[in-house]
């Protein structure tokens, strides 16, 4: 079973290939992916690496956590599973006047109404 690793505080120059080659020193890498911004096409500064075994993953974590890459100390640890029900966008309803009674901003949204 593969083990997923979170790699944070990456310099924007890091690519999928360079990420994979750095972790390959410690064992077989199933996948390596730097997360990219959809709109700009630029790195978000973090990524994920899947290692073939938990032992090789732990060896990579122990060796690479805190190492300086292009002047930035990277964070390397086990990835946490995604939380159920999260959709990437706001799901708390945002700000509405109904949650803030007596403020005087109308009946909803981000403004309007009486002053």
UniProtKB/TrEMBL annotation:
Biased composition regions of type Basic and acidic residues, renumbered to the chain: 80-89
Entry coiled-coil feature ranges: none
UniProt domain RRM: residue ranges: 3-81
Keyword Transcription in record: no
Keywords: Plasmid, RNA-binding
Alphabetized SMART domains for the sequence: RRM (SM00360)
Segments of this protein annotated with the region Disordered: 80-115
InterPro entries hit by this protein: Nucleotide-bd_a/b_plait_sf, RBD_domain_sf, RRM2_NsCP33-like, RRM_dom, SLIRP/GR-RBP-like
Segments of skewed composition (Gly residues): 103-115
The keyword RNA-binding is assigned to this record: yes
Protein name: RNA-binding protein
Organism name: Comamonas endophytica
């Amino acid at each position: 079973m593969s083990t997923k690793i979170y790699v944070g505080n990456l310099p924007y120059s890091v690519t999928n290939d360079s990420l994979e080659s750095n972790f390959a020193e410690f064992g077989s890498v199933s996948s390596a992916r730097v997360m990219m911004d959809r709109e700009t096409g630029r790195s978000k500064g973090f990524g994920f690496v899947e290692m073939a075994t938990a032992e090789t993953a732990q060896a990579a974590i122990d060796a690479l956590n805190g190492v300086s890459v292009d002047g930035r100390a990277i964070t390397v640890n086990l990835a946490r599973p995604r939380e159920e029900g999260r959709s990437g966008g706001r799901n708390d309803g945002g700000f509405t006047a109904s949650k803030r009674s007596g403020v005087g901003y109308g009946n909803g949204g981000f403004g309007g109404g009486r002053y």
